[in-house]
Amino acid sequence: MINSIALTGRLTRDVDLRYTQSGTAVGTFTLAVDRQYKRDGEPTADFINCVIWRKSAENLANFTHKGSLVGVEGHIQTRTYDNNQGQRVFVTEVVVENFALLEPKSSQQVAPAPQPPQAAPQQAGGTTYQAQAQPAQTAPQTSNDPFASNGKQLDISDDDLPF
Asked: Which of 3, 35, 70, 158 is the most buried (most CB within 10 A)?
């Protein structure tokens, strides 16, 4: 038996991050997934409810917002509960196990925050964001790199190459 799903879509709203009584983070969100065909020339989409748990829920809530393009992997879960009127309610949702941010950080921010010029790369959900380019330095630098040429041309013949 296989219960596996992979979806790519946009968040219809910010992730609703909550905590259980025991302190476990849980995030709920809806993913708008485009269909391959159009109805009357208009694109159509499915709106799929998703739930994500623990640190992944916190990361998704911190690094995304409404409209973010996200890829998710997980499994489908159906659960039931009785509402206040005593009726049984069935809920089908995707339990997200992994997610990936599918847009660069610059397109996810409405107003980009200024970064210090020597900021370390940030990592979120498997996507690495590189800090801004460093300004060119005029003073020569000494390096402990044994492969650095320090401005000298290296003399390597084709016979020295292993391939």
From this structure: 70
